[in-house]
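Here we describe the complex-level prediction in full. Unlike the single-chain runs in Section 2.1, the two entities below were treated as one system.
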Amino acid sequence: ALPKRVKVVEVGPRDGLQNEKNVVPTPVKINLINMLSETGLQVIEATSFVSPKWVPQMADHTEVMQGIKKLPGISYPVLTPNLKGFQAAVAAGAKEVSIFGAASELFTKKNINCSIEESLERFDEVMTAARAASIPVRGYVSCVLGCPYEGKISAAKVAEVSKKMYSMGCYEISLGDTIGIGTPGSMKEMLTAVMKEVPVGALAVHCHDTYGQALANILVALQMGVSVVDASIAGLGGCPYAQGASGNVATEDLVYMLNGLGIHTGVDLQKLMDTGTFICNALNRRTNSKVSQASCRL
Amino acid sequence: MGTVPSALKHCLSYQHLLKEQLWIGEPAAPHTGQESQASGLPEHIKIVEVGPRDGLQNEKVIVPTDIKIELINRLSKTGLPAIEVTSFVSSKWVPQMADHKEVMRGIQRHPGVQYPVLTPNLQGFHSAIAAGATEVSVFGAASESFSKTNINCSIEESMERFEEVVKSAKNMNIPVRGYVSCALGCPYEGNIIPAKVAEVSKRLYSMGCYEISLGDTIGVGTPGSMKRMLEAVIKEIPLSALAVHCHDTYGQALANILTAIQMGVAVVDSSVAGLGGCPYAKGATGNVATEDVIYMLNGLGINTGVNLYALMEAGNFICTALNKKTNSKVAQASFNTGTMN
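The structure predicted for the assembly as a whole is:
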């Protein structure tokens, strides 16, 4: 049986914009987040407290964090790759943070220049500080259905890393199909392994639509009891591993499907589409959301 | 998270991973089908390729006859079991299909591959047979308004027209496939009740259509409405005689197809490169891309007999000829990782 309610985690302002070529001006980012706050979304990932040397798009993290209108009942998590980032985030007013692990050694090495084990030690520092400050931490696991460097990733490895992060104190684990290569078959296999180690209520899926499989993969996850789904407004964010290919699944298309399934999200699809139109105009690009494309004639 | 070197595009591991997913050049799929069996999914799914007809019909540019023939010939080499070739409809209504006779006569037919054609009425049927057709399709709808607007008659009148075709076809041992449009919604009427879809499907099946393809014509359906519609239709028609024809206008096609195959449907229509826009929503997409469907089915361990690489090459051919970008995400991603040269 499908969940009656699904929590949609909007990652457009962070994961989406991070993978867009043009650097977006701070006021546009702030307006985007403010508009998203009016749609009924309960969680909006605002920015990333990472060094601007690595991610220039997120250089204005402090200004964004301090500039947005924070509505009651809405969470605005931010990425914090290490203790330094965590402290900067808290100083800027963050009340929830996220840490990014991976199920692939090579991906971890290439991305953050250390092993999985070392990355978890780094995160442990963040966890300790977060606990002391009563700040909830969300854990991401990348490459859960495949890795651009290692290729195939075993479901057991994903389960192992997820379990470690959950045991460390992450309240939720978001399982990311980073290159969008997964299908309902591999999604099911991976979730079956992970659900042996982490309660399904603490799991989320973060599907990329690079091979068009995202909604089908999300459907399978829902059928297995997952009730938290990440998505990006207008499908913002390409794929750094396949030039010209798409990345995140579009929030509009996800909400359309959930509406059709009678699953409650609290999100107003029209307001969501209006927000997507805003950011696409600002970025001077076409939307990646099919629902938006289809509704354009109105 | 950080920036990625472009050298990654040629990363061997990624290519290997993709090759596993795409199942290149393996005549028999590496999976024994046990995977799909265990999950209750069909072991084998028949793909009906509608690109040359439904796809091209909804493309703005008129495609030269030789390009159409080349496309069909290439598709014939991919392992696809059925390729809808053209439509014997008046060229006044559908200029894209005006060369139906030349296309029918010009293609190289592969043994074991079906080449159905659309025949809206008896006149079209005779013309199709004269041109060498060995299978035909008739197009009904679950919506009165759609029927009136599209073919200028009521559903009942259209059924009478089709009965003539089916009768003649039966006499000549020509199989007839029946389509039901607007199965999950109508551009004019909006919501369509499942019982109506079941009624029209039953009518077509009883008159002698061997297969009923249920079409989400405007792509508005979701796994929720797909399930409800199929539950109603399955009461009237054996599962093995059902097919789904999903449009991806709202990005729901693969999720809807997955729902259908979870319910036991084992025939899926799709269009190479996702050819064919939607005439009801300007700029929106239409048919689901065959490449993306095959990719999903491969990942589920379901056998289709189709070589995805060959299919992508056929898709690349027609997109180049049409001077347009593919609508297939698999093709978009694969052509850009250096996997396809």
